[in-house]
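I am hoping you can look over what I have pasted underneath with an eye to the fold:
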Amino acid sequence: MGSEVRVRQIVVMGVSGVGKTTIAKGISTLTGWTFAEGDAFHPEANVAKMHEGHPLTDEDRWPWLRAIGDWMSAEIAAGRSAVVTCSALRRSYRDLLREGRPEVEFCHLAAQEDLVGDRLSHRGGHFMPPSLLPSQYAALEPLEPDEPGVTVSVEGSVPDVLARAVESLHLPAPRTE
């Protein structure tokens, strides 16, 4: 073929309950790229803290973000494109994830707080209680024009949101036959 495929690392970001895992898994399925759940990189102490209803501090987050970054670096070194979920609410967190990794792009799943609150109230088995949602919106710094990435509304059905994400990120179109 002769043309080299560009390695990409897509970080599906946003507040808890916005659909990061669903959309990231959808992107992974459509592209064949590796998928990782960002929450799996949290140390046990972070999970316990959130489960108890306490928001994480920056000191709690840095090791977690570095672990996600290390995972992406390994995927890049292996020549694999990948998609990973990570709230990445603040610019400083995204800067750390991008540091030395020009392959990293963000897909910010954006929604109104009342929609996400409703979703969280119906979600079971997750360590993030709905009571922490206001602190997430307070921390959220939307993507800035100089950051590589796109913002995608989560209004509508999962297939609608996935189609908008795929189109916005200029990913290979899914086959429909």
Observations:
- The mean pLDDT is 88.
- The domain at 20-154 is CATH 3.40.50.300 (Rossmann fold).
